[in-house]
């Protein structure tokens, strides 16, 4: 977190997490799911109609959606370390393994083993952490390349997240040409959605190719996360996005980020999402995990923004419904609720879950299927190396 929020007490975190779970359960029970057409789906509120401008198109390349390779291994580690609310930096996962075993680690002890090698000698750093960490082969990562074209034809590239495993992410960066884009300074900024291991811990891979890249991070990072950015070799501008609509962060005409003030598992707080208003189409969101939920995403957009045709046009990323493929009947209400918003193009993956993606398809939603390449498990969603376009064909 930021310096003042770094003192956020464990008691407050547990209280917030509990309220988040209760709120999610309340929404998941179908309170909203069976309401009339999507406009009636929203509460009666005065819309602020904040104008972020408009862009011509958005393209997303899935660099990696495989945050981990085996659900059972990850959930076993979490359970063995003490559960979902345990500080992620104590798990002894790579790259912060110190050899003391599951649930006994710390950021300080782990980073001390490899900091002298960051960000340029990642192969050596990973070979060290592999020997000291719990289940290093299970680490993957989430990252996406977001390309935006302005109305005047000017094009921009942004990196959303930087994954987890140095080894896996470097391989994925090279596969999609991200390494060269970073070297050439073609990518303007690294936008970190949230502090979770699978989205953030691979930042040295980005810094290896461009240590001066501008970063947008949630202002809710803990002290360990802020220190890691420095220890990993970042030398560029660091922009901390504040929570809530007052902290709306415009980037270019038609594109802004917004930080949702939500508690998340493994002692992480807050998630940043990208909003883009695509001319003649509507609003698009690109998310890392959508921990704030589809319902909150849609209601926030409706309440806060002005966008083309008043249409929620598309969404890309993890939708966090069944990340461990552990389907619960109450999730069916969330599947039903997606249809109420009128999305015209959905590119889901990662923590959405394959089961959930297939249920979306069964209901006839406009899901863009993938190719199941590069270790992505199923074509039911956009896998590694796949692309999606909003306002443009890819």
pLDDT averaged residue by residue: 89
- Could you give the count of β-strands? 15
Fold-level CATH name of the largest domain: Metallo-beta-lactamase, Chain A
Question: Strand order within the widest sheet?
Answer: 7-6-5-4-3-2-15
At CATH level 2, the architecture of the largest domain is 4-Layer Sandwich
Please identify the top-level CATH class of the largest domain: Alpha Beta
Domain module tally: 2
What series of H and E elements makes up the topology?
HHEEHHHEEHHEHHEHEEEEEHEEHEHE
Oligomer: single chain
Largest sheet: 7 strands, mixed
The number of distinct helices, counting runs of at least 4 residues, comes to 13
Q: Which superfamily, in CATH terms, is the homologous superfamily of the largest domain? A: Ribonuclease Z/Hydroxyacylglutathione hydrolase-like
Describe what you observe in this structure:
- The protein has 394 residues and is α/β, with parallel strands linked by helices.
- Helix content is 30%, strand content 22%.
- It folds into two domains: 40-68 and 139-390, Metallo-beta-lactamase, Chain A (4-Layer Sandwich); 70-137, no CATH class.
- A hairpin with a 3-residue loop joins strand 9 and strand 10.
- The longest helix is centred in the N-terminal third of the chain and has 22 residues, at 10-31.
- The radius of gyration is 20 Å and the shape is globular.
- 50% of the residues are buried.
- The model is unreliable at 1-39 (pLDDT under 50).
């Amino acid at each position: 977190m930021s310096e003042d929020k770094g003192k956020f007490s464990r008691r407050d975190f547990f209280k917030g997490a509990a309220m988040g779970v209760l709120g999610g359960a309340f929404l998941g029970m179908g309170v909203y799911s069976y309401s009339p057409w999507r406009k009636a789906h929203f509460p009666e509120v005065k819309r602020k109609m904040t104008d972020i401008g408009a862009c011509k198109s958005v393209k997303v390349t899935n660099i990696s959606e495989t945050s981990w390779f085996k659900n059972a291994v990850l959930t076993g580690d979490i359970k063995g370390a003490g559960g979902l609310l345990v500080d992620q930096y104590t798990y002894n996962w790579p790259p912060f393994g110190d050899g003391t075993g599951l649930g006994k680690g710390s950021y300080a002890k782990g980073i001390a083993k490899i900091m002298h090698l960051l960000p340029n000698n990642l192969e050596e750093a990973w070979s060290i952490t592999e020997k000291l960490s719990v289940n290093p082969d299970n680490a993957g990562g989430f990252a996406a390349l977001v390309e935006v074209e302005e109305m005047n034809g000017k094009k921009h590239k942004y990196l959303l997240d930087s994954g987890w495993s140095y080894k896996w992410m470097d391989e994925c960066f090279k596969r999609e040409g991200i390494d060269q884009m970073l070297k050439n300074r073609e990518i303007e900024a690294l936008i970190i959605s949230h502090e979770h291991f699978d989205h953030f811990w691979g930042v040295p891979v980005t810094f290896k190719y461009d240590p001066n890249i501008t970063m947008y991070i949630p202002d809710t990072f803990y002290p360990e996360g802020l220190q890691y950015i420095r220890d990993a070799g970042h030398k560029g501008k660091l922009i901390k996005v504040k929570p809530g609509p007052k902290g709306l962060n415009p980037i270019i005409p038609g594109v802004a980020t917004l930080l949702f003030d939500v508690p998340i598992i493994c002692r992480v707080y807050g998630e940043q999402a990208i909003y883009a208003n695509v001319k003649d189409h509507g609003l698009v969101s690109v998310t890392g995990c959508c921990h704030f939920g589809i319902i909150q995403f849609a209601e926030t957009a409706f309440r806060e923004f002005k966008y083309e045709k008043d249409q929620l046009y598309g969404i890309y990323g993890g939708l966090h419904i069944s990340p461990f493929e552990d389907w619960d009947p109450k999730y069916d209400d969330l599947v039903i609720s997606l249809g109420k918003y009128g999305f015209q193009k959905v590119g889901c993956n990662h923590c959405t879950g394959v089961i959930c993606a297939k249920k979306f398809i069964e209901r006839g939603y406009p899901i863009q299927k993938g190719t199941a390449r590069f270790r992505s498990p199923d074509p039911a969603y956009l896998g590694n190396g796949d692309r999606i376009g909003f306002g443009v064909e890819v």
